[in-house]
Amino acid sequence: MKLLRKQRGFSLIEVLVSLVIMSVGILGVAGMQVISLQQNRSSMLRGEALQLGNDIMDRMRANPVQDYAGEDFDDDPPTSANCVSNVCTAAQMKDFDIAQWKCSINSTKSDGSTYPICTTLGIFGSLPTGQGAIVDNDDDTLCAVAAGETCAVIRWVDNRDGTTSQISLRTRTD
């Protein structure tokens, strides 16, 4: 009868296999962390865009005698009086509202310089290459609206590969 020899310790192959398995697990956890951070940033930007959209909607409802529609993505923030420290007409208040809104979305021009009105108002944009537009039923290519409704559309670059995200909010001001 042969005696079986007892094995002592691990072989080099067993150590290498366990090391590979552990490395794959650590890489998986790191990958999940990166995706989590990307999704968290995307969620933060979407929340900021929703807040800015609701802000302009409230401003439109507070100044119903003015038509805010006709503001395009490529339009610069209008130059306006500071209606916080000055008494303004409804038309001046509309320009002030749009200037604050556009500056809050993105305060920099395509060449990297800041819009002068944004500097004057002390507002700096929060969405990367963000843009805003306000449309009504005369121009429903961006947002389907019914008669008497106005739509605010905000878009921004959501990640490094240039993917653009967009939200649209509609309201009645009459």
N-C termini distance: 101 Å
Alpha-beta classification: alpha+beta
Strand content: 5-15%
Strand order of the largest sheet: 1-2-3
Radius of gyration: 27 Å
Major beta sheet, specifics?
A: 3 strands, antiparallel
Give structural notes.
The protein is of the alpha+beta class and 174 residues long. Helices cover 42% and strands 14% of the residues. It has helices spanning 12-62, 90-105, 116-121, and strands at 131-136, 149-157, 164-172. Strands 1-2-3 form a 3-stranded antiparallel sheet, covered by helices on one side. A hairpin with a 6-residue loop joins β2 and β3 (164-172). α1 runs antiparallel to α2.
Observed structural traits:
174 residues; alpha+beta; three-stranded antiparallel sheet; elongated
Strand-helix topology:
Blueprint: H1 12-62, H2 90-105, H3 116-121, E1 131-136, E2 149-157, E3 164-172
Antiparallel strand pairs: 1-2, 2-3
Helix pairs in contact: 1-2
Short structural summary:
By secondary structure, this protein is an alpha+beta fold. It has helices spanning 12-62, 90-105, 116-121; strands spanning 131-136, 149-157, 164-172.
